[in-house]
Each structure stands twice: as C-alpha cells, then as structure tokens.
Amino acid sequence: MEQQAQLKDGRVALVNYGKDYGKLVVIVDVLDQNRALINAPDMVRSQMNFKRLSLIDIKIDINRVPRKKSLIEAMEKADVKNKWENSSWGKKLIVQKRRAALNDFDRFKLMLAKIKKGGLIRQELAKLKKENAA
Amino acid sequence: MAPKAATGRTSRNPDLIRGVGKFSRSKMYHKRGLWAIKAKNGGVFPKHDPKPAAAETPAKPPKFYPADDVKKPLVNKRKHKPTKLRASITPGTVFILLAGRFMGKRVVFLKQLTSGLLLVTGPFKVNGVPLRRVNQSYVIATSTKVDISGVDLGKFDDQYFEKEAEKKKKKGEGEFFEAEKEEKKVLPDDKKDDQKTVDAQLIKSIEAVLDLKTYLSARFSLKSGMKPHELVF
C-alpha cells in the first residue's frame, strides 16, 4: 500500500462539501483534532473540518500560517495548478466538469462520435477475426 | 362656457391650503378681467348660443323587454401586455417540444405572435413539423441558435392560423353519413408554398452547421442516467 498523503502544514486539499465545493486549498495550520485552518488564493483564510477535505498528493513549502502573498508565491513555486491538472484525479475532475456543461447539441454530437468510433472498432475486429480464421 | 386657455392653463388663484384660495371672489373677478369682457360686450356677459344638436333619429321601441332586470357586467378597459418571453428564447433558438403530436421534436423558433404564442417550424422537410404555434410553457429552449436573418416572417400572425369558418350545409337523414366521410381537410396550396419559402432559407443556414440537420431530425428523449435538473440544454 503506497503511503497516503501526510497531514501537515502545506498539504494541498480538495474541498468536497459545502459552499467552496471543488476548490483546491492549502492547510496552513491544524487547529485541533478535527479542524484545520485553510487558505487559498481566491478565499479568505478560514477554518474547515477535515471531514470536508480530501487530501491530495501535492505539498508546498511554507511555514505555519504564512501571509497570503507568500502563500501565493509558494503555490507558484510548487506549480500546484499544473501538477493538479496533470494528475489522473485532476484530469478526471476536469472531464466531469466538461461533461456536465455539455449542451443538448453537444450531447448529440458526442453520441454520433461514439457510434462512429464503435463502428470503426468493430470493423477492425472483424478484419482480425477473418485473418485469424483463415 | 367660454373657451379655455389653450396653452399652460394655470390658475391665477394659488392655494393656501387645499380648498382655500388666496384671493376672494371679487379679487378674482378683477384678476380675470371679467369687467373688461363685460365692458367689451356692453355691460353684460357675452352669450353663446348652444351648438345645434345633431338631429336624433327616432329610436325604434325594442321588440323585447327582459322579464327581470338584467345586470350589466362592469366595464373592463384593461389591456393585456404581450407575454413575457424567457430570456433564453430568441429568434433562431432550437426548441425541444414537450407535448402534443410532435413531442420530443427539435424545432426552430421563428417569432412571437401577438397572442403570445411562439411561431415555430421544423423545418418541415427535416423533421415533419410544419409552421405551427406553440406555447412557451411546453417548450425547452436549448442554447443552440440557427441564423434566421434571411427569413421573411411578415405575413404570419394569429389570423393565419385561424380555423376556416365552416359553411352551413343542410343535412338530410341519408346524406348525413356520406357527408362525414367526404370531409377531409386538405391544406390549401398557398400555405404549402409559405412553408416551402420559409424552409428554403432556413435549410441553407442549417446545412451550414455540421450535424445540425441530423440533430433536428432526431427526437429528444430522456435516457438512463440523465437527470433533467442537472442537464444543461
């Protein structure tokens, strides 16, 4: 079993419940057994229960409770945004968002594309079957 | 009475309080110059003969008097405002029809008629929906738009869609059943031509967009896993 993300100051987390659902935040301090102080570039520093957070594999290098400015600098240095968007979890979320925003016309075009793809696959499969049978 | 002042008819007697003027009757007499009018007319107020009343045609006594007093309905001068369109509905929007014969069909919106109903067309060649009126409530407006700038919609209004006034026929006993069978409503040729002209321009704009024609010819339906409250149309 690979090591799980360690809970420390500087750990990046994903908010999974509530008003800030889906945002990436940084844990800047641990308040007690249940709560953390979190901060993000587009958010006021606030407390949040760990139950509302899902820890992510990304960590940034900060002191305990940094200023907003140094937090943003540290996030840029660690390149949190790109690391997240290139991780498999991050990519899945992006796809989910894209799917949810599809238009009725887009969904129709998607269906046509799926049918076409399936047709091509079946053609190739039929070819391979014929070759094998021969 | 004497003709009123044409422009800026103000009172020369300002109100001190509602109902109490600043000047007395005699003061106002002088202010209005009524003494001058009298003097001009030789000491009396000028008299205007009443206008000759239009000769009244002697009204015929009514044939029928109702037995009881019939109450007249109250006068209602309210004018309806044109139905407010949802912000998502603009000319050229693709709609999904939700009820009726063409349930689930995707159609193109043309314009709103004075009755508030929406004028819509398939186009007919694409999905079989003719020029038709539809209520806003039975429609989902998608965010897909078609360019309808070249279409002339001036001649379509609610009158165009009125039912033809049926001619009264004398029905004999035996003829009754035969007459029922023969009556089949055929759409007049000029309406078919109207459909063709509107659709000709529309189909050009539709074919300009990839897959739009197949989109319009397909019906919409909810499939497994689709949650209408979460779908973006």
UniProtKB/TrEMBL annotation, chain B:
- Region (Disordered): which ranges? 46-82
Entry-linked Pfam families: Ribosomal_L6e (PF01159), Ribosomal_L6e_N (PF03868)
List the GO cellular component terms: cytosolic large ribosomal subunit
Q: Which PROSITE patterns match?
A: RIBOSOMAL_L6E (PS01170)
* GO molecular-function term, one example from the UniProt record: RNA binding
Keyword Membrane annotated: no
Q: Which GO terms describe its biological process?
A: cytoplasmic translation
Please provide the record's keywords in A-Z order: Ribonucleoprotein, Ribosomal protein
Q: Which residues form the Large ribosomal subunit protein uL6 N-terminal domain?
A: 4-55
Classify the source by domain of life: Eukaryota
Query: To which protein family does this belong?
Result: Belongs to the eukaryotic ribosomal protein eL6 family.
Instruction: List the protein's name.
Output: 60S ribosomal protein L6
Q: Which organism is it from?
A: Citrus sinensis (Sweet orange)
